[in-house]
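Hi W., the zinc ion complex you wanted:
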Amino acid sequence: MDEETDCPGPGGTADVVCALCGARAASESAPPTWLCSVENGSRHYFCDDCARTHIRAIEGRLDSAWW
Ligand SMILES: [Zn+2]
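Structure:
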């Protein structure tokens, strides 16, 4: 059950940090340009730069461990 986009958000408290480069979102929810991927039941965010770089892997539904 993987969802790549349109995740309901972190609930308003957790920091949104890119799982790849560590960039922080300016707001407490992921910007619309960020990707959200659910892997093994936990949510990972990817900034727009990383999303663009890895879009093919993301669309291929590979876990980021494969990148
Ligand atoms: Zn990033």
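The chain has a mean pLDDT of 76.

W.
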